[in-house]
Structure formats: C-alpha cells, structure tokens
Amino acid sequence: MTTPVLPKMPTLDNLHDLDARDPLRHKKAQFVLPGGVIYLDGNSLGALPGAVPERLQRVIHQEWGDALIRSWTAHAQEGRDWMALPDRVAAKLAPLIGADASEIAVGDSTSVNLFKALTSALHVAAPGRRVILTDADNFPTDLYVAQGLNSLLGDRYELRRVPAADVATHLTDEVAVVMLTEVDYRTGERLDMAGLTAQACARGVLTIWDLAHSAGAFEVDLTGAGADFAVGCGYKYLNGGPGAPGYLYVARRHLDTRVALSGWMGHADPFEMARDYVPARDARRFVVGTPMVLSLSALDTALDVFADVDLAELRAKSLGLTDTFMSLLSGDPDLTLVTPLDHARRGSQVSFRHPQAKEAMRRLVERGVIGDFRTPDIVRFGFTPLYVSYADVYHAAQAVLEVAGELRA
C-alpha cells in the first residue's frame, strides 16, 4: 500500500494529477451521484450503485411478479434462488472482513445482531465473570442493547464504560466480554483491533467488534486479529441502501454456542418443519427469519462493486483523501481537528469541532457539500474512496473555508 505523498498545501493541479493516476478512478462511474453535489456522508448512507435499480426491477417484476413463490427455490443451480440469498451475500462479505463465509450470518439489523453476539459471548465466557466492558462513548445503540440484555438477565452483569484509551488497562479477570466499535462514529479514530483483541485474549476476555464504520472503507481481518464476534451494517460503506441488512460474524470456534434467537431459517432443515430446533452447522444458525429478499438483493448487487477492488489500494486512497482534506483545512482558527493524524489510528472520515457546527453543516449542504453534524459541536465528513475524488476534496475544503469565514465575520 502506497499512500500518495502530498505537498504541504496541495493545489488543484496536484490533485487532478492524483486523480489521473488513481487506480480506483473508474469506480465512480458505477454509482448514481447527483450533479452539483460532493457527497461526503457515505459513512452514514452509501451512494446508490448503478446496477441496483435494474436488479430490483428484475426481482420485483420477474422473480416476485411472474415466478411468485417458486422463486424461493427456482434457479438454485444458477445461484438465483431466494433461499440462498443470505449465503451468497455472506460469500461476498467474507473477503472484505477477513472471514470465511460459513462464519457470517446475514440478516436483521446491526442492533439485533449485536444482541445475538452479546448473548452468545456471555454464554461462552468464563464462569464468574460479570463485567461487560465498553468504550464510554460507544455508539448509543451498542450501549442500549447491552443495557437491555442485562436487564433481561436480571441485572446479573455490570456494563463498565471507560474511555477508549483506557480499555486495555481495564481488561481484568472480572471482564467477560469487551464490546468495541473499531472506528469512532464521531471522531473517526480507529482502535487497534489486533492489539486489543490479543490483550483481551491473554486475559481470557471475549471480543465483540462493531464494524459499521470499517467494512468497505478499508481492509478488515477478523481472522488475523483473532476476534470472537463482530457485527456490521450494509448501508454505509457497503452501499446496500437505507436499512440494508446487517451481518453477524461468529468465529468458527464459537459456532456451536447457544443461539439466543432460534428461528426457523436457522434450522438445519427449515422445510422439514420439525417441532424441535436443530441448528444449522455453520453461522446460518444465527439467521432468524425469512430473508428480506428486496433489501438483500440490493445489498447483493451493491457488493459486486468490490469484486475487482484491491483493498490495499482502497486504504491508500482513503488515507490520501483524508490527508488532503486535513491539510487544506489546517489553517482555519475555528476548526479544531478531532480525527487522529496518525494513519494507523484513523478510519475513513475527518471530523472537526466548530462553535457553530450545526449551522456550518446546514450552509455546506446548501452549497452541495453533504457531510453531517454530530452533537454537540462536530462536523463530520466521510470519504468513500470508490466515488470521492481528490478534486472533490479540494472543492469541498474550499466550501468549508468559505462557510467558516462567513460564520466568523
């Protein structure tokens, strides 16, 4: 991976040259992007891949409209039956997160999958351990799910929230599970998954990683890191559409653990209609109900854009784009950078604090630069390497400087 070397203050000509040499430059044409817009919010909702509307039309009119219920099993040999949709999506996800397809269950939301993962992890955890350790500023849903599950279990556990920087020092013999999001949704700071997982493992602590701001933005290696469980969504950097299905990773060594939500689609033979639950042999046991055919079909097609993507090149461009944005905005007195400069500690977004952050983002959106605002004072910009160019970054930065100047005047 070679990250582009930028001049201290890059010019538009410098950036046009980088775009001309970008190995991913052809990818932008595979997305539907409105004219006059620079889209820097793919870390919240990915842009529409151009092949998705045609796929959905086929599913609606031919598979649902014409074939009707036959589509559940029709064309299985060609890989077009609905029943196997979760497995086909899992196979496309696997190389993006460093896992085997048999370890991935696709379906439900990230929150529901986190409930499944946490329940299974607590079942596997060493007896007597009663602490769920997490980042104090973890994404609220992750905290809510842990709180709700603990309440369901009679408040048997303590949800211990500590600053992300202090997680390693709190990996004590009391801790059953550590639950972390790899990239902070506000600041874009990236945790050391491999290092923290190794430290947790050494203390007998199980790990659950939330990949919502990781998968599709850079290479993830769950197997190499030794992670126990992971969850993620399909609608951010994976571009699967609003509310796209989430996924659950369960390391092979835990595949025989208890399944908290044992639905019929996780049965070893769903159409046998047996009265007793017998789980599927792989992660399919964690699929609860009927596959969401329309949304799964959109995600299935969206993932095709990654088929020829070198993830090392994806990461190099991500770092180049974020370096460029930071450099161009480094001189503004009202923008306080909260995203790490260190490449190893950065995801694929850049966040600043600004005293009028909400108004600043409103004005940027009016100018066609779409990022987002996070309470209380953060403006956040996501850089999706597949469809954001270096020239886009330059023009977006100029708009940010203009708005910051207006608000300062």
TrEMBL record:
<dbReference type="InterPro" id="IPR010111">
    <property type="entry name" value="Kynureninase"/>
</dbReference>
<feature type="binding site">
    <location>
        <position position="110"/>
    </location>
    <ligand>
        <name>pyridoxal 5'-phosphate</name>
    </ligand>
</feature>
<comment type="similarity">
    <text>Belongs to the kynureninase family.</text>
</comment>
<feature type="binding site">
    <location>
        <position position="210"/>
    </location>
    <ligand>
        <name>pyridoxal 5'-phosphate</name>
    </ligand>
</feature>
<keyword id="KW-0378">Hydrolase</keyword>
<comment type="subunit">
    <text>Homodimer.</text>
</comment>
<keyword id="KW-0662">Pyridine nucleotide biosynthesis</keyword>
<feature type="modified residue" description="N6-(pyridoxal phosphate)lysine">
    <location>
        <position position="236"/>
    </location>
</feature>
<dbReference type="InterPro" id="IPR015424">
    <property type="entry name" value="PyrdxlP-dep_Trfase"/>
</dbReference>
<dbReference type="InterPro" id="IPR015421">
    <property type="entry name" value="PyrdxlP-dep_Trfase_major"/>
</dbReference>
<feature type="binding site">
    <location>
        <begin position="139"/>
        <end position="142"/>
    </location>
    <ligand>
        <name>pyridoxal 5'-phosphate</name>
    </ligand>
</feature>
<comment type="pathway">
    <text>Cofactor biosynthesis; NAD(+) biosynthesis; quinolinate from L-kynurenine: step 2/3.</text>
</comment>
<dbReference type="InterPro" id="IPR015422">
    <property type="entry name" value="PyrdxlP-dep_Trfase_small"/>
</dbReference>
<feature type="binding site">
    <location>
        <position position="290"/>
    </location>
    <ligand>
        <name>pyridoxal 5'-phosphate</name>
    </ligand>
</feature>
<feature type="binding site">
    <location>
        <position position="181"/>
    </location>
    <ligand>
        <name>pyridoxal 5'-phosphate</name>
    </ligand>
</feature>
<keyword id="KW-0663">Pyridoxal phosphate</keyword>
<comment type="function">
    <text>Catalyzes the cleavage of L-kynurenine (L-Kyn) and L-3-hydroxykynurenine (L-3OHKyn) into anthranilic acid (AA) and 3-hydroxyanthranilic acid (3-OHAA), respectively.</text>
</comment>
<feature type="binding site">
    <location>
        <position position="213"/>
    </location>
    <ligand>
        <name>pyridoxal 5'-phosphate</name>
    </ligand>
</feature>
<feature type="binding site">
    <location>
        <position position="264"/>
    </location>
    <ligand>
        <name>pyridoxal 5'-phosphate</name>
    </ligand>
</feature>
<feature type="binding site">
    <location>
        <position position="235"/>
    </location>
    <ligand>
        <name>pyridoxal 5'-phosphate</name>
    </ligand>
</feature>
<feature type="binding site">
    <location>
        <position position="111"/>
    </location>
    <ligand>
        <name>pyridoxal 5'-phosphate</name>
    </ligand>
</feature>
<dbReference type="Pfam" id="PF22580">
    <property type="entry name" value="KYNU_C"/>
</dbReference>
<protein>
    <recommendedName>
        <fullName>Kynureninase</fullName>
        <ecNumber>3.7.1.3</ecNumber>
    </recommendedName>
</protein>
<comment type="pathway">
    <text>Amino-acid degradation; L-kynurenine degradation; L-alanine and anthranilate from L-kynurenine: step 1/1.</text>
</comment>
